[in-house]
Structures are given as structure tokens and as C-alpha cells.
Amino acid sequence: MSQVVDGEYKPQPIKGTTTVGIRTKDAVILAADKRATAGNMIVHKSVKKIIKVSDYMALTTAGLVADAQMLAEALRNEIKKYELQMRKRMPVKSAAMFLSNVLFGAARVYPYIVQFLLGGYDTAPRLYSLDWFGTVAEETFLVTGSGSPMAVGVLEAEYSEDMSVEDAVKLALKAVYAATRRDTASGEGIDVAIITKDGIRMERHSLDEVKGMTIKIA
């Protein structure tokens, strides 16, 4: 996308978003809206902001879409290489550190304008955040993107590490939906990834569907 400024075309980066990660004792839930914006324009209404990088790991992406997609592909290739050489699964923390090293190496020259949530299951559920400087943090719940202020309030009020997987999915939907109500860069629908010891299950929900839910957390 581009816009005209003083008679010249200026590129507008495609970005968004609201993404949520929740870790429970049995699973990691990732959720993200589907809107992408460039400046004040909605340019895509069906962006996949949850990217599966292995059979047991997935990323949410916030920031510049092209940067995020390229780094996700780099991580996917690194995981494949590790598993071929080591003949075992790459630990989720190792995947987080690979991304951290790439982000840190670029930060002082030409930084990648991205934030990631990395969720996975190795010996237990794992959830990490990574910013464009390469900072890594492991948490029980995380939010990235322009809709974060609205979503994090929902999580802080209702999250429990002992909650069921079903309730965690409901909470993730509720948090992203809250962001779409106030943040113009978030919207169109909500994708969800449920990561357990059995693998990754993906779900798609329209905003009307989520709005019609009676979301009560047990």
C-alpha cells in the first residue's frame, strides 16, 4: 500500500493487530484477529496472524506483516533442521532463543518491526513473548498489538492457571473481542490455536458468533 504525500508516493507498511496467549496446566491457547491496516486504511480482512511452525508450536504475529511472515518461515526451517539432525523435537525455549538471536542481530542495523507470541508443548505447555529487540519473556498470559490495553484488562480480571482448556478458549475470544470493539486496527474475526500434548487444533470464529456467545468463565 502507498499514499501520496506532497506529490510523492510514500509506502505504508501493512500491520495490525490484537493477539492473545494463555497458558494453562494442559494447553496453550493463541488467539488473534484477522484485520490488517496500512495507515488509516483496512487493506486485508482475512490475514492469518497465527502461523503454525511445527506440529506442536505456533506463533502469533503483530507488527509488519512481511517481517513476521519471513521470520516465521525462518523458524519453521530451523525447527525442521534441528529435528533432522537431533532426531527429536526442538524445545519451545530453543525456538524462542533462535528468534531472539535473529531479532537482536538485526536490531541495531535494520530492525524487524514485529512482536511474537510463541506457544508450544514439549514436556509441558510453554508461552513466550518476543519483541523487536529480541527480548524473551515466559508468562502465563500475554497480549501484543494495538488492541492490547483492552484485551489485557479482560485477562487480568478473569485468568486462572487452573482454568480448563475450554474456559481458556472462551477467555481468549472474550479478550480479542473486547479489543475489536475499541481498536480500529483490530477486527473481522478471530482465529484460535489450541496447543496440547496431542498437537495443534485450529478454530475460526466470526465476531458475530463471539458476540452471541454467553462467555462465562467457570
Automatic annotation (TrEMBL):
<dbReference type="GO" id="GO:0004298">
    <property type="term" value="F:threonine-type endopeptidase activity"/>
</dbReference>
<dbReference type="InterPro" id="IPR000243">
    <property type="entry name" value="Pept_T1A_subB"/>
</dbReference>
<comment type="similarity">
    <text>Belongs to the peptidase T1B family.</text>
</comment>
<keyword id="KW-0647">Proteasome</keyword>
<protein>
    <recommendedName>
        <fullName>Proteasome subunit beta</fullName>
        <ecNumber>3.4.25.1</ecNumber>
    </recommendedName>
</protein>
<keyword id="KW-0645">Protease</keyword>
<dbReference type="InterPro" id="IPR029055">
    <property type="entry name" value="Ntn_hydrolases_N"/>
</dbReference>
<dbReference type="InterPro" id="IPR001353">
    <property type="entry name" value="Proteasome_sua/b"/>
</dbReference>
<dbReference type="InterPro" id="IPR023333">
    <property type="entry name" value="Proteasome_suB-type"/>
</dbReference>
<keyword id="KW-0888">Threonine protease</keyword>
<comment type="subunit">
    <text>The 20S proteasome core is composed of 14 alpha and 14 beta subunits that assemble into four stacked heptameric rings, resulting in a barrel-shaped structure. The two inner rings, each composed of seven catalytic beta subunits, are sandwiched by two outer rings, each composed of seven alpha subunits. The catalytic chamber with the active sites is on the inside of the barrel. Has a gated structure, the ends of the cylinder being occluded by the N-termini of the alpha-subunits. Is capped at one or both ends by the proteasome regulatory ATPase, PAN.</text>
</comment>
<dbReference type="GO" id="GO:0005737">
    <property type="term" value="C:cytoplasm"/>
</dbReference>
<comment type="function">
    <text>Component of the proteasome core, a large protease complex with broad specificity involved in protein degradation.</text>
</comment>
<keyword id="KW-0963">Cytoplasm</keyword>
<dbReference type="InterPro" id="IPR019983">
    <property type="entry name" value="Pept_T1A_Psome_bsu_arc"/>
</dbReference>
<keyword id="KW-0865">Zymogen</keyword>
<feature type="propeptide" description="Removed in mature form; by autocatalysis">
    <location>
        <begin position="1"/>
        <end position="16"/>
    </location>
</feature>
<keyword id="KW-0068">Autocatalytic cleavage</keyword>
<keyword id="KW-0378">Hydrolase</keyword>
<dbReference type="GO" id="GO:0019774">
    <property type="term" value="C:proteasome core complex, beta-subunit complex"/>
</dbReference>
<dbReference type="GO" id="GO:0010498">
    <property type="term" value="P:proteasomal protein catabolic process"/>
</dbReference>
<feature type="active site" description="Nucleophile">
    <location>
        <position position="17"/>
    </location>
</feature>
<dbReference type="Pfam" id="PF00227">
    <property type="entry name" value="Proteasome"/>
</dbReference>
